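Morning F.,

Quick status update on the modeling queue. The single chain you submitted on Monday has been processed. Sequence for confirmation:
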Amino acid sequence: MWSRHLKSRSMITLRDFRTVEGENMLRSIAQTESLNRTSLAHLRSFLSGVFQYARRSGILNTENLCEMSCCQSLDRVMKHTHIPWRTSFMVVVVPEPGATAIATAAFTGARRGEIRGMLWENYEGDQMRITQSVFGSHADEPKTMKSRAPVPAIAPLAKYLARHRAASGNPETGLIFRSKTGTSLDLAQLARFVIRPALKEAGMAWHGWHAFRRGLATNLYRLGVPDKTIQSILRHANLSTTMNAYVKSVPADAAAAMKAFKELCNQYATASEQAKSAVM
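Structure tokens below.
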């Protein structure tokens, strides 16, 4: 991405780069190269990541220029839905355990209460069994029989869970996300005091935990995953709920569907690493 499309056009230093340069660069690429809208969005997200990292590293003290560029309408299309490129940069700028909580929400589509109730003994490397949901200080069974089905755990999520587990002392049982007092971690407070400030500093918006669930459904649909499979992954009792409330624009079994999603996420993870390297 950098060497093929951006390097030859990057003759301006980061400190001198303005919004107009970003707009002109993307417009030039769109006019001279045969790229579709999705590819242009990838380029925009890569540039956005470069500036986010530069600001966090103290190289720049300005707004994220690419967030204000000519492709900003892409965000409006996906309002209140966390799309993959945004998630890939969230886990870079948000400190732990926020990054792992975000990865869990984005890659499993689990509800906030279900994430709070996840247990290490229910994590089997390639799937997570959902056996409880936590609201406030109260744990209860999942809301429906469908909700009790396991969800696939793809490789990007496994990486974050492994790191989080090691940082937690390698527990075999107990809550995956726990507070300092051993109770279930309050994800609303985590978002308020950790995630939101980190994203604000990086020039990114927070749309809430449920946006990851909607985002997963939407992206699986765009990958051509059958409607019934998406329903299975989100564990909805009714297909109409999945299609009408969660898919914005949806078996091959769930593991195959999540494998396709994994490949998409890997692309954005690579772009994130390239963004960091570009400013070092």
